[in-house]
Every structure is written in structure tokens, then in C-alpha cells.
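This part of the workshop introduces the protein records we will be handling. The question running through the whole workshop is how a given chain folds. To make this concrete, we reproduce a full record directly below:
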Amino acid sequence: MKTGYKLFATLTVFYGILAIVYWLLGGEPLGITAISLSAGLSATVGFYLWVNYKRLGLLPSDNDAGEIADLEGELGFFSPHSWWPLSLALSMCTMGLGLVLGWWLTVIGVGVLIVSIVGFTTEYEKPGITTHY
């Protein structure tokens, strides 16, 4: 992560300088906005990686003398099966068709999308049990 946040910090500075130079040379507003948003996006990713680096410390992947076996162990929780991504995809398709066929279908798609997002994010929550990270 140390290399990652340094890379994205460098990209943030690069995009910031590029946006200023593009603005001073009379660039179009859309290009200035796009380059500035690229700087903001790389700053966001770099900040996330920096915070995780400070929280987790030096990872085995950051160690130059590290071995592949140093990365063994649990990598995280991956859902074995879930129907919520299918519901999310279908509701997004319904919203897209609603833009073509009529607003009423978009309203239905938004309603199903809200239910799908809530179901997807709370899929593994147990009532009465709180998880602290």
C-alpha cells in the first residue's frame, strides 16, 4: 500500500499541474473539469490507501524481501451465493428501459433498485448483533 498511495499522490500532483497549465493555455472548460476531476479521483484513492497503510502498517507485499508464503491466510469474506446482484442488474435495466419507454417504468425501476440496494448491503446483518471494525 505504501507504493500505491505514493503513486496516487504523484498522479494527483501531475493532474493538478496539468489542469492549471491547460487552463492557462486557454483550454476548454470541459477539459479543465475532466482533468481536475481526475486529480480529485486520484487524491481520493491515494488518501484511502494512505489511511489503510497507517492503520495496517507494512504489509508483506510492501516488503522487498517478502516471500509469497507471507501472504497466506484469510483474505476476506466472499459471498458464496447471493441473488441480490441479479436484482440490482434487473432494476437498472428496468430504469434504462424506462428512459426509452416511459417515466412510469423508471419509477418502478427506482423503487426496485432501492429495495435491492438495501437488501444487498444488509444481506449478512443479524438483528441485534453489532459488528465493530
